[in-house]
Write a structure and sequence with these properties.
The chain contains no helices and eleven strands. It is an all-beta fold.
């Protein structure tokens, strides 16, 4: 079965940066998009970003727009999330996921993703 493994999380000061990676165990032929979500304690899972297979379509919510950049390297079966200007409110467990949903407008919905990683903790201190 396809496995997604996140890495790169850690503790960073406000204003700092982190680069998260998500490596897939194999090429997900049915997946047309990869996404990042985050979940803070006591809160629902929140959409962070998504990118299509070719990498020419990306989307971000206003909460991270201009600060986070999603990218992918298909040769490595890896998707990245580069985070700049981190804020304490960015503190959460970050999950990567793979989706077979072709309609980009639905990529922000967790149930549209077929595979999920275990998450990596990002903690931003003030």
């Amino acid at each position: 079965q396809v496995q997604l493994v996140e890495s790169g999380g850690g503790l960073v000061q406000a204003g700092g940066s982190l680069r998260l990676s998500c490596a897939a165990s194999e090429r997900t032929f049915s997946s047309v998009a990869m996404g990042w979500f985050r979940q803070a304690p006591g809160k629902e899972r929140e959409f962070v970003s998504a990118i299509n297979w070719n990498g020419d379509i990306t989307t971000y919510p206003d909460s991270v727009k201009g600060r986070f950049i999603i990218s992918r390297d298909n040769a490595k079966n890896t998707v990245y999330l580069q985070m700049y200007s981190l804020k304490p409110e960015d503190t959460a467990v970050y999950f990567c996921a793979a989706s077979s949903e072709r309609w980009a407008a639905l990529w922000l919905i967790p149930t549209k993703y077929d595979y999920w990683g275990q998450g990596t903790q990002v903690t931003v201190s003030s």
